Amino acid sequence: MSLIDYLDQLKGIGHHQTFAAGTDLLCEGDVATHLFVLEQGAVRLWHNDDGRDITVQFFFEGQVVSSFESFYLVRPSQFSLTAIEPTTVIAVAEPALRQMLAEQPALMAVFTDYICHRFIDYTQYFLNRIEESPERRYCTLLATQPALVARVPNYELASYLGITPVSLSRIRARLKKIPTA
């Protein structure tokens, strides 16, 4: 089972919210008080490093997002959550979610599994940024998540890859010149 299997229950304790593209669901420095279940749209999790955007992850329909460190520890978030297209979510308040998790051990197990997978994703993201060249990171992303590459604006994709939009354009141009077998 996944968190989405509990969608009806989460809807029962949450409320719908709609965000226009470019709207923040959470601003860096604020405490995350809600978990968001994406029904429609896309959200990016990012950090502002002295004016430079560092995109850490993208979330799409059927996924769950929050600044989990902030949500769990009740402290200011190091990340912002921003809709990158018109987005509809179910917003579940922290006290209601904690109560539901305490009352349902199976849901707690699924939630823990989800958090563990997020941690694994972040570890892989970190290692890829250290070990792979920007071109290799792009090629890997293109091979493993072509829908993400097609859906995310280029400047945010560049931020996710740790490069500038100009570098991304150059990489794409180089790859177009490579003959395919």
Architecture blueprint of SSEs:
Elements: H1 7-13, E1 14-19, E2 24-26, E3 34-40, E4 42-49, E5 52-60, E6 64-65, H2 68-73, E7 80-83, E8 87-93, H3 94-103, H4 105-131, H5 134-144, H6 146-151, H7 154-161, H8 165-177
Antiparallel strand pairs: 1-8, 2-7, 3-6, 3-8, 4-5, 4-7
Give descriptors for this structure:
181 residues, alpha+beta, 4-stranded antiparallel sheet, 49% helix
What would you note in describing this structure?
- The chain is α+β, with helices and mostly antiparallel strands.
- Helices cover 49% and strands 25% of the residues.
- The chain has 8 helices and 8 strands.
- The chain has helices at 7-13, 68-73, 94-103, 105-131, 134-144, 146-151, 154-161, 165-177; strands at 14-19, 24-26, 34-40, 42-49, 52-60, 64-65, 80-83, 87-93.
- The strands form 2 sheets. The chain has a 4-stranded antiparallel β-sheet. It has a 4-stranded antiparallel β-sheet with strand order 2-7-4-5.
- A hairpin with a 2-residue loop joins strand 4 and strand 5 (52-60).
Q: Could you tell me how far the N terminus lies from the C terminus, measured between alpha carbons in angstroms?
A: 41 Å
Return residue spans where pLDDT drops below 50 for at least 5 consecutive residues. none
Strand order, sheet with most strands:
1-8-3-6
Proportion of strand residues: 25-35%
Mean pLDDT: 91
Oligomeric status = single chain
Count of DSSP-assigned helices: 8
Give the radius of gyration.
Answer: 17 Å
Largest sheet descriptor: 4 strands, antiparallel
Using the alpha-carbon principal axes, give the shape. Answer: elongated
User: In which range does the helix fraction lie?
Assistant: 40-55%
